[in-house]
């Protein structure tokens, strides 16, 4: 659906049951859950879908090994429940988005014999908690087998390893798939549209004022209820309702660095269970590269946080201590920082001590805020929120009960993991490109390639990467991409794996988008400047 059609729909709909504010995992999940029950739903996102926290994760679908350790050590039932829910939701996400997610083998290296039973027992318990939703069994590895699976690992002093399994996914495209599936179910979704005011009658919210971030135009929308799913920015939205309200959240930064593929095998990741300051560190294969993260430090609120040199040094220092390969700052191909929304707890010593749990809070005027949580449990968070909203706002959905537990996301229904073999034959692609398109677009890949064939854009976007020019046109026509950075960082992941290549691709993306969207020379210059600034300062 084109943006003009969506704007018209927003203006013509007399009233929505729910307005969802925020286009990350939480907001898109709420919109999908509500729309699949037959409610009239609108979702607005100030920037792009998954532009914030939801597009800057460690790319893991997990129950949370660290949370399980805390649950045991502190007899903390909340942490235990978080792990149990996460493992169940991990299975559902792998089932419902088969093209965007996969099982990943991880190895934990052990350099002290005394740690072997502790680590192995913990990961075995992790298996047991997953029950029928398990995706593979943990087992103890010999020193030789550990090095075979992860040859880059430092051999000196290595005693053994433990193998276990979690899920991996493409976070930005996952959020987009959830949003587009919500649209498929009848929701009105739009990005680059900010909530700038709440309308009240007799002290209760019954509408909102929206501002188009691309044109500056404003419009009004009537609704029965508003769901605040703004991620780290929920308190900003709450202040539109109550300027004096106390904050619900604190934030921490999660910084990641990307290296080339020689720093991680293609099918195995490394989990370091405890760094010098008690953090968990991952070294993972991701889209033909090595992803290392993450930090966990208190951070100030920013739409596009920039990784600090101290955080990058922290990751490099710890990676070097586990690698036989020397890693230099010049090996870094890309970096990014994401803010984690953590439910505030004044007694917590640091941000790592805060549970990644979610809460629902309702203001006296009826603003429902969904705060906290983590990617893996987005669906359950959405279910809890919609169940609550139906009761609170006395809504009458056409379909009773949550529908999303077994609802395939767009691209997954007819997807088969064939490595893109059919695409190679039908469209004369190389295997790397076909495999990439198969994984990212699923059963929509052939539609994208037909667009490319009809527009003569089945050419590489930039040398050394699998991305095609056709993806730009497809993203504009079918995926609501409105800015160059939308394509560089989220419709594709080029900016997330290779900043230099992203700069090289920018002029061609700009040319293709200008032709599709009718940009004049002034708009092209503005967009080029904005893109360069984002690539320099924070994706």
From TrEMBL:
Residues 402-523 form the Alpha-glycerophosphate oxidase C-terminal domain. The keyword Cell wall biogenesis/degradation does not apply. One of its GO terms (cellular component) is glycerol-3-phosphate dehydrogenase (FAD) complex. Its EC number is 1.1.5.3. It comes from the Bacteria. One of its GO terms (biological process) is glycerol-3-phosphate metabolic process. Signal peptide: none annotated. Keywords: FAD, Flavoprotein, Oxidoreductase. Its cofactor is FAD. It catalyses: a quinone + sn-glycerol 3-phosphate = dihydroxyacetone phosphate + a quinol. Gene3D superfamilies: Alpha-glycerophosphate oxidase, cap domain, D-Amino Acid Oxidase, subunit A, domain 2, FAD/NAD(P)-binding domain. Residues 17-379 form the FAD dependent oxidoreductase domain. The keyword rRNA processing does not apply. GO terms for molecular function: glycerol-3-phosphate dehydrogenase (quinone) activity. InterPro entries: DAO_C (IPR031656), DAO_C_sf (IPR038299), FAD-dep_OxRdtase (IPR006076), FAD/NAD-bd_sf (IPR036188), G3P_DH_FAD-dep (IPR000447). Belongs to the FAD-dependent glycerol-3-phosphate dehydrogenase family. This is Glycerol-3-phosphate dehydrogenase. It comes from Pelovirga terrestris.
């Amino acid at each position: 659906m084109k943006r003009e059609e969506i704007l018209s729909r927003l203006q013509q709909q007399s009233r929505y049951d729910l307005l969802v504010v925020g286009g990350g995992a939480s907001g898109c999940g709420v919109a999908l859950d509500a729309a699949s029950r037959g409610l009239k739903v609108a979702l607005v996102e100030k920037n792009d879908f998954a532009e914030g926290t939801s597009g800057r994760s460690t790319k893991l679908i997990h129950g949370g090994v660290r949370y399980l350790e805390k649950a045991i050590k502190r007899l903390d039932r909340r942490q235990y429940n978080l792990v149990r829910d996460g493992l169940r939701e991990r299975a559902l996400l792998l089932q419902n988005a088969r093209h965007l997610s996969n099982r990943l083998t991880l190895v934990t290296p052990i350099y002290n014999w005394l740690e072997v039973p502790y680590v192995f027992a913990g990961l075995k318990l992790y298996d047991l908690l997953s029950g029928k939703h398990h995706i593979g069994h943990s087992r103890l590895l010999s020193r030789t087998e550990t090095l075979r699976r992860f040859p880059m690992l430092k051999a000196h002093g290595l005693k053994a390893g433990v193998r276990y399994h979690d899920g991996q996914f493409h976070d930005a495209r996952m959020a987009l798939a959830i949003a587009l599936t919500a649209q498929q179910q009848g929701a009105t979704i739009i990005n680059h549209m900010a909530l700038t005011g709440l309308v009240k009658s007799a002290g209760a919210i019954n509408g909102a004022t929206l501002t188009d971030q691309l044109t500056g135009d404003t419009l009004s929308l009537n609704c029965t209820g508003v769901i605040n799913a703004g991620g780290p920015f929920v308190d900003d939205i709450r202040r539109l309702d109550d300027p004096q309200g106390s904050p619900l959240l604190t934030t921490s930064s999660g910084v990641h660095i990307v290296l080339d593929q020689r720093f991680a095998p293609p099918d195995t990741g490394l989990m370091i269970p405890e760094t010098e300051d008690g953090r968990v560190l991952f070294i993972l294969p991701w889209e033909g590269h090595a992803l290392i993260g993450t930090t966990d430090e208190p951070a100030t609120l920013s739409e596009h946080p920039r990784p600090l040199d101290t955080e990058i040094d922290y990751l490099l220092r710890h990676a070097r201590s586990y690698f036989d390969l020397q890693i230099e700052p010049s090996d870094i191909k890309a970096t990014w920082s994401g803010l984690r929304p953590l439910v505030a707890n004044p007694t917590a010593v640091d941000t790592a001590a805060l549970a990644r749990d979610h809460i629902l809070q309702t203001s006296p005027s009826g603003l429902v805020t969904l705060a906290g949580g983590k990617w893996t449990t987005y669906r359950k968070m959405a279910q809890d929120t919609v169940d609550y909203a139906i009761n609170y706002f006395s809504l009458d959905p056409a379909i009773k009960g949550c529908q999303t537990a077994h609802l395939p996301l767009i691209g997954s229904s007819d997807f088969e993991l064939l490595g893109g073999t059919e695409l190679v034959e039908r469209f004369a692609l190389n295997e790397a490109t076909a495999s990439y398109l198969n994984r990212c677009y699923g059963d929509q890949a052939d539609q994208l390639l037909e667009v490319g064939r009809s527009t003569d854009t089945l050419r590489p976007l930039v040398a050394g990467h699998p991305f095609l020019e056709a993806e730009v046109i497809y993203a504009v026509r079918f995926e609501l991409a409105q800015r160059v950075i939308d394509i560089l960082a989220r419709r594709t992941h080029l900016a997330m794996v290779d900043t230099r290549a992203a700069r090289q691709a920018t002029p061609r993306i700009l040319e293709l988008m200008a032709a599709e969207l009718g940009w004049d020379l002034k708009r092209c210059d503005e967009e080029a400047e904005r893109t360069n600034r984002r690539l320099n300062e924070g994706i």
